[in-house]
Structures are given as C-alpha cells and as structure tokens.
Write a structure and sequence with these properties.
It is elongated, with a radius of gyration of 21 Å. By secondary structure, it is an all-beta fold. The chain folds into two domains: 129 residues, Immunoglobulin-like; 86 residues, Immunoglobulin-like. It holds the Pfam family PapD_N. It comes from Herbaspirillum robiniae. This is Molecular chaperone.
Amino acid sequence: MVCIAAAGVCGTAQASNFEIAPVVLELSSSRTAGVVKIVNNDNHDVSLQLRAFEWKQNDSKDDLQPTQNLIISPPVFSLAPGASQVIRIVSKQPSGPNEIAFRMLIDEIPSAAEGATINFKFRISMPVFIAANGTSKLQLDYTLRAGKPARLEVQNTGNRRARLLDVAFTLPNGKKINVPAGGNPYTLAGVTRQYLIDTETPLAAGSKVKMTATGDSGPIETELTVAP
C-alpha cells in the first residue's frame, strides 16, 4: 500500500490524499484478473478517471499508447472522505515469451467549481505486467561507451522487467559520479536503455570504471571496461 498526497496544479485546487494498494499489479496466463483498492483519506470528495495504456520503451523513452487489452472497471468514479473503491482489472492480452507491460493512469478530475482551466489535478502512473510464459528470467548486461558525455547501455536480455536504482560510477581518478535516475527505473524485457553520464573529461576507451547500483536482486557491483 502507498499513501499519496498530490497537490493541485493551480492555487485554487485542493490537495488530495489517498492510498492505493497494490502499487504494481502482476497478472499471468493463469491469473488474468486482479484488483486495486483506492481509499480517500482526505476531507473532501475526489473524482477519478482510470485509463489503460500499452507501455513500450523506444530510444530510452517510455511510449504509452491507449489499449483495449486491459479492461478497467469502473473507469470513472467519485469517493467521499474515508470511502474506498475496489477496481477490477482484466487482461485480454495473451501472454508471450516476454513479459508484457501496461500502465494504468489515474487522474483526479477537478470539480466544476475549480474552473475549466485545470485539466487534471494530478496523475499517477501505475505499472501492470502480464508475466511471460515459462520460467521468469532476470538478466541485465552493461556497456559503458567512451565520449563526453559517456553512455551507459543497459540491455535487458531476460524475459521480465528489471529495475535499476542508485547507479554510480567510480572513475579511474577515484572520482565518484551519480547517474541521474530519471522518472522511471524500469528497463522492460528485451529493451536496451541508455543513460548519459556527464564527466569533466571524456572517458577513454579501455579504461576501467567501477559501477555500483541496486537491482531487483540486491546490490550490484561490477567493473566495466570502457568501450569505443
């Protein structure tokens, strides 16, 4: 469960405070439906709209496209203070050799009194995954390429998504650089993501750089040889 406080996008919009559980939904060929519970912990009514999107990653960026393969019920509803709503999510997408990813966008709809200039008060993007057929495999490979900025290529050769957090490099001169996390730590199955690393001087091909991070299985520590 996660408790979320979301401020309005303009001065007249109220803040909202509610809980969502779970924050990641995992389905499979044998479990094609699941539920998410939303609780309004605030002192005012909230109206929410839920929509499903197919989630891809292209050129290291998330690409969301509306889909009918994930059915959400109810898609629009209101919650009084202290009230809760159970959302039923059903997948029509057959599972495949790789995990399939969706995003469910949860938008708070402003009241008419808050004015037509507000599109949405806030948005939450929740992952929904359809497990791959067969045994789950998690595998990340790393390539660090020379240049300024240097480039870390993270290739997910497994059949499920992987998370990479707190990425840092210790350069040959001993200086430590933290890699900007961005808004999304996931690398989806079969995808290669690229992270740009700003250094004072270009990394030389053939030099050794120590990489540390936190992955799904715990701490990661490895030495990379800088590629051309």
